[in-house]
Amino acid sequence: MSFIKWQEGFLTGIPEVDAQHQRLIETLNTLHFLLKHGGSHEEILEILRFLDNYTVEHFGTEEDLMEKADGKFPKELRERHLREHRYFIDKVQEFHGVFDAYRNGEQEREAILKLFAFLSHWLCEHILKTDKETASYLR
Ligand SMILES: [Fe+2]
Question: What is the CA(120)–ligand 1 centre distance, in A?
């Protein structure tokens, strides 16, 4: 588990999407900070709630762009992209449920560490592969 350093390699060339990605990474880094410095249950819950809403908003932006550009890029890519988004939303909700079930303690910490590792890994992979591949058809 580590802090995610923003890198040029994350840029898709679509300013709105890039700004949202930056915000998502900042959010994960805030979560990282809270875990490292013993953030309270309420503080962590607030970050999870923000993530729930912000991912829906962000994925909506990308999905609208794909819809507007329909015909410009492979159907397979669009379907795969939507599947990946749904998977992430499900995962965030699943972790949210796990988190709600615990109160401050070792179990909670373990669940959140898993959440952080999963979210970080997924987001970096998704941006570097699927979002960049999609952006190459949208720019
Ligand atoms: Fe995406």
Answer: 14
